[in-house]
Amino acid sequence: MEKFKKSFLLLGLLGIMLILFAACSGDETSGNSNNDANAGDTEGKDGELSGEVEFMTISLFPTFEEYLNGLKEDFEKLHPDVTVTINDVPYDQVEQYVLTAASSGDLPDVMNLNTEFVKKIGAMGGLVNMDEAAADVKDTFFEGLWKTGGVNGTVYALPWYTTTSGLIYNPEILKEAGFDSPPTTFDEAWEMSKEIYEKTGARGEYVQGEMHLLFPKNGIPILNEDNTAAAFNTPEAVELWTKLKEYHEQGLFELDVMLDQVSMAELYASEKVAWWATGPQLFRQVKDLSPEVYEKSMGAAALQGTAGKQHANPMNIAVAANSESKDAAVAFAKFVTNAENQLEFGKLASVLPPVKEAVNNEFFDQGKDSEDATTRGRYFAAQSLADAENMSPQVENVSQVIEAIQEAFQQVILNDVDPADALAKAEQKVNSVLE
């Protein structure tokens, strides 16, 4: 499981890596947000804020350097007595950088943090309580995404950019199996998979990584309401894992993707699967691997579980609790995440803004009837934000919780462990982690 631990450390940084892969060029490359009404600054008139603000970002230079410098310059124009310095840290160094700074009490004033770091540092008392400091802008964000930066009942960060899933599918494989449209639910997907596998030899639905997300997507809570104990050991979870075990025995999927032996992009590009559920910003991987397959592909909405929810994992903007320029830092955090700036960054970086006003823009609406898989997938992904939430447990040791669930499911498939026994063992392990 060492490989899994290492991969999870980078899971929260996935949004950054996706951006660097999928970033597109465009005419709008700087932050031209001069609307102070959107800045969320409640400290007074322009110019009353003062101080020096260090803004730490993660692997956004040089790709988005012009945009970030534009944000800095626009904010400094609004608040002439504030100086913003941007410090971009490579993603492979950020864990050590942040944890060292936290232990020494010298965190940057404003930080671009993944969700796991927010939980760790928030639990340590190192971050500003945004339920209080940003109460005036709380309702501008989608409710489910606002809670992303929460730990032990308090939100410690503002959601910045995010991704959620769409579906890229191969109409030719579907047609060969007798279908004229992709599935809309997981149950429908598995039923179609049987026909697709029998008639074409390709597979349909596939169990990927992040097994824990299938629980909340199907109405099974991972933890109890106060996050003190496991809550996933239920008859519904036993039924879910029993079905998945049967699907595997029927040959409908292999564990190669979950075990990092092959990527879904490779399987889809080689027409070994009929669809791939992932963030639309990754659809372009298919084009790189097989332009011919990409050209005949279409985009659709992500599959729905019984709960009707989608998972989103925003990157976040947090403020250090001991910042010497706390008022200015909070105002800058609100400015970076306001609707205008979020929309501009979404266009530039092929990501989604977790702000209601930004999503309700023609930029996203235009993809509804597009023949391009990525553009159409982006439309459906944007629409799903209203029902999206970060489904990872709101606890400091979230990685250990997820690892326990992942290991248990692998035992069901690889070693023929009874699903009920595997869930019971995972429950014990999670409860031990939470003690």
- Uncertain stretches: 1-47
- The tally of helices reads 21
As for the number of domains, it is: 2
Structural class: alpha/beta
What is the radius of gyration? 22 Å
Dominant shape: globular
The total of beta strands comes to: 12
Largest sheet: 5 strands, mixed
Can you characterise this structure?
The strands form four sheets. A five-stranded mixed sheet has the order 2-1-3-11-6. The chain has two domains: 15-163 and 313-360, Periplasmic binding protein-like II (D-Maltodextrin-Binding Protein, domain 2), CATH 3.40.190.10; 166-310 and 393-434, Periplasmic binding protein-like II (D-Maltodextrin-Binding Protein, domain 2), CATH 3.40.190. Mean pLDDT is 89; it is low at 1-47. It is built from 21 helices and twelve strands. Helix content is 43%, strand content 11%. It has 435 residues and is α/β, with parallel strands linked by helices.
